[in-house]
Structures are given as C-alpha cells and as structure tokens.
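Predict structure. Chain length: 185.
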Amino acid sequence: MPPERRSRSYASSAAWRRAKAMAREPTPEDARKANRRGAARLAAVQALYQMDIAGTGVNDILAQFESHWIGREVEGDQYLPAEAAFFRDVVVGVLREQRTLDPLIDEILSQGWPLKRIEAILRAVLRAGAYELDHRRDVPARVVVSEYVDVAHAFVDREEVGMVNAVLDRIARRLRAAEFDRATG
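Prediction complete.
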C-alpha cells in the first residue's frame, strides 16, 4: 500500500494514542525515552505534521504547543516538559532549511519515491532528523538517528520505522562522516 494510505484522522488513530503514551510521565520501562529533548523532538514532529496537514502558521503552532501541550495535561495524560528552546529550534529550523533538507532526503530515498509521496508524519520525522543532523552538531549523530527512530515508533509501523532508520543513517554518514570514521578507526 502507498504511504498515504491512512484515511482516518491522525488525532483518532492508534498512532496518536502511541504518541500520547510516549509523551506522558514515564513508567520505569520507558524512562530512557523520558527526557526533555526527547519530549521536544516528539512535540516538534507533531507540530511539523500539523503545519503540513492543516497549514497552521509557525507562530500559531509554537504558541499552541507551548501553551497547550508541552508539560501540560491533555485528555487526562500528563505530557512531559520539553526543552522549549530545542523544540523551537527544530520547528523553526526545519522551516528555514526545508529547501535544503528536502532535496537531501529525496536523494537518499529510493528511486521513484520522492519525499512528497511519503506520508506527512514520516516527512516531519525525516525533516526534523535531517535538520538536527545538519545543524545540531552538539548532539552525536547516532543519538539523533536513535531518537528519531524512537519518535517514528510512536506513529508508524515497523517497516516504516526501518525506512526512517535507513534514511537518517545515510544522511548522518554523509553529513557527519568523521563521527563514523572515528568509531570504526
């Protein structure tokens, strides 16, 4: 089935419930994912998705997420506090750099399957991950890839998560080859 196969609304989907579970206060088994930057990444992907689907402007989306989602209780779930500056950097950075990021992602994707044909939530994950790999050199490449694979798990099936991992890994090796050379040398 093509990536745009999902017809139900995102907010009522199982993926939305998984994303909500990922953003709630952690249980011992998911404590590893429960950090302020992880929460910021998840919120950034959700914000980018909403901007893509609903056409919401950046100022509106930042205000909405910072005042109604991040660190708040929503529908009975307590969302983790997120590093607000990191959240803003990823969202605004993706928008600012999208003309550079999209061709990079397109080049890595399989022939005949351009980014515009990828499901909107996957576009958001790939763009956010590619942005962070290119512009957040303070975060190790392997951490970036791992974190966005975790985010993808909240929204999509295993096969699509594998695609996110492969694409971000190839982008990481292209943009940060020295990090990988040090690890193997």
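Summary: The longest strand covers residues 73-74.
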